[in-house]
From TrEMBL:
Gene3D superfamilies xrefs: 3.10.450.50, 5' to 3' exonuclease, C-terminal subdomain (1.10.150.20)
Coiled coil: none
GO molecular function per UniProt: DNA binding
Name of this chain's protein: DNA-binding protein
Domain of life, per lineage: Bacteria
Keywords, in A-Z order: DNA-binding
Length: 197
């Protein structure tokens, strides 16, 4: 494993917060994603690109046509979902909910969608959910999805959302789809959320 070159304290700290401490780990991400991380600027990217080349490595190629293409925050997730349509739907939901993308949310959620946060509340109806989500939208810096699983009518994901102030929200989501069909919409979501104080 090759240590990170000297890229400045803000960039080093930003990457270390994501447990990115080696060039091999940097090579798992594309330039555009890393540039969206607060603290990582063009100068750091230039230094990393040079160091990667010297180690016969390179930034990952940008995946075209993903839900994260148009967002202004970094999305750290496995985008290799082409043979798992429900994983792609979950990924798109996570990006849309972090960015408040109404059109994308409407495309992945069933009209009678139900969102439950056990012990806290339940929201019934896609439109009510979207309205609540947009009313409470936070300025996101990083959406990191640590795992994304789907099987039949069910799926799950967990990860961390970091806002622009550096605060973390840890989430674990359990999804239920309308049916086993590959393009089925999400009908239910149960979320467990821990907000950093």
């Amino acid at each position: 494993m090759t240590k990170l070159p000297s890229i400045g304290k803000p960039a080093t700290n930003a990457l270390q917060l994501l447990d990115i401490t080696t060039l091999e780990q940097v090579a798992e991400y594309d330039e555009k994603t890393l540039l969206k991380i607060h603290g990582v600027g063009p100068k750091a990217i230039g230094i990393l690109k040079e160091a990667l080349a010297e180690s016969s490595l390179a930034f990952k190629q940008t995946t075209k046509g993903t839900a994260s293409s148009g967002v202004d925050f970094a999305v750290l997730c496995d985008f290799d979902c082409d043979n798992a349509p429900k994983k792609r739907i979950i990924r798109d939901y996570l990006v849309a909910s972090a960015s408040g993308d109404r059109a994308l949310l409407e495309s992945v959620l069933e009209e009678s969608f139900v969102w439950t946060v056990p012990g806290e509340f339940q929201i019934k109806g896609r439109d009510e959910f979207i309205a609540e989500l947009i009313a409470n939208l936070q300025a996101v810096n990083i959406l990191e999805v640590q795992s994304l699983i789907s099987h039949g009518k069910e799926g799950s994901a967990h990860g961390t959302v970091t806002n622009k102030k550096g605060k973390h929200v840890y989430f674990s989501d359990i999804f239920t789809f309308q049916s086993n069909k590959p393009d089925a919409k999400i009908s239910k979501l149960t979320s467990f959320v821990v907000i950093e104080e």
